[in-house]
Amino acid sequence: MAFKKKTERNEKRQLNPPSILTKWRPNYDPTEQEMERLAQELLDWSDTKEALKMSQFHSFKAIDHTTYDKWCDKYPVFGKAHEVAFVRVANNREIGALTGELNSGVVLATMGMYDKSYRSYWKWKKQVCSKDQTKQQDIKVVIEAVPHSDKVPKMED
Question: Residue 153 — left, alpha, or beta (φ > 0 → left; ψ -120 to 50 → alpha)?
Fold first, then answer.
């Protein structure tokens, strides 16, 4: 029964089961063909609506974060696939927030990690806010007494 559930989950995600690339051999150095296949799987996964965090892919594939990053640097085809997948994940997150499928507050708070334009915006906003705070001054408001008028009834104490 547990195997059936796992198989259904794999089919839903359109991913192959966790690879043997790192499951039993953490220091395994994959071939170019294996990395091309893994790169294609990454692109296929990132094209689905469920792709919301990059760590979903490598954790499902039983690839630790350090190895994943090392492979992105070492294998250009995998590094490029990662860049494309990263943009797709950012788009999935933003569209999900805009359509109300995802919590927009959570997405907005973390979009700077996925999208350079958001990162630039937050950096700019931080600079503007810090400049405004240095210019803050005390403001005195002086309200002069209003003369008595017959049109306004006198206020009783």
Answer: beta
State the residue range of the domain holding 75.
Answer: 31-118
HEC profile of 7-41: HHHHHHHCCCCCCHHHHCCCCCCCCHHHHHHHHHH
- Nearest CA to 75 out of 40, 114, 25 is that of 40
Return d(Cα 27, Cα 30) in angstroms, integer.
Answer: 9
- Name the stretches of the chain with pLDDT < 70: 1-26, 131-136, 157
Which residue type is seen at 7? T
Domains in the chain, number: 1
Q: With respect to residue 22, please indicate whether it lies within any of the assigned structural domains.
A: no
Domain annotation covers residue 78:
yes
Is 8 within a domain? no
pLDDT in tens, 9-48: 445 545 555 555 555 466 778 889 999 999 999 999 999 9
Structure pTM?
Answer: 0.63
Residue 98 Cα distances to 25, 101, 106, angstroms = 42, 8, 12
Residue 65 lies in a domain: yes
pLDDT score for 7: 47
